[in-house]
User: Fold this.
Amino acid sequence: MSRRSDFHTHTIYGDGKNTPKEMAQAAYTMGMTDFGISEHAWMPDFPDENGFGLTEEKLVRYTREMRELQEWYRGRMKVHFGIELDGMGPIQKADYTIGSTHMLRKSGRLIAVDDSEETLKEAVQQLWQGDWYAMAADYYKQEEKIVELTSCHIIGHFDLITKFNQGGRLFDESADAYREVALDAMKKLNRYGIPFEINTGAISRGYRKEPYPSSFLLKELRNMGGKIMINSDSHSISGLDQGWELARQLAADCGFSSRYILDGTGGYRRVEL
Assistant:
């Protein structure tokens, strides 16, 4: 029987809708054996000018609550205490970290690539003169450094810039100009031996019909001997169970027979898909 797990979730300490206690209870009710919360780290330069994520005061409260949950579920479900770090943000400590590229800096502006389709389209038009492939090249140049910048345990939503690109409505993901820069970054990151997550968050929030990374990238990752993990990137209880079977089937179709989970000691355990 495959171990059900999820290591990428968010709560009211960031941009989520539920408390850590509510999220953990929902995960336990679903039968998960391993459940992690990975709140967004502090981003003082976030474009809304008020910062984003875990201030130091929030981090203290978040840490305390996570330690309490670990004790409460001891022997029933392994609760993991994490933080999602951005390559352009400061480093904050937790038992595990997800490394993600949400931000690009261009011409003195900080752009959140997953904020909204309108924001991203405006940025590409103004800062990259409408050239989506030039933006992609800058994104993957930043993404290829994510392990170096964050020392992460999980590589989060590798191709996040496709969040709003369902059906290729913004750019062609089969174009050489896109695939070459994406694959180059994937090859560089895969050398670290860190799992790439298959992320279903954009499905639960209505942006995509498929998880990311794309099937093309996952097949290439399999050919490279890369590792995967399946996470929901859920911001609410309702998102925890969205897309799990779809992600597992996608992984199988791309040639994977196993995935990885955190073992709670800084390492990984390989489990059946």
Notes: The two ends are 10 Å apart (CA to CA).
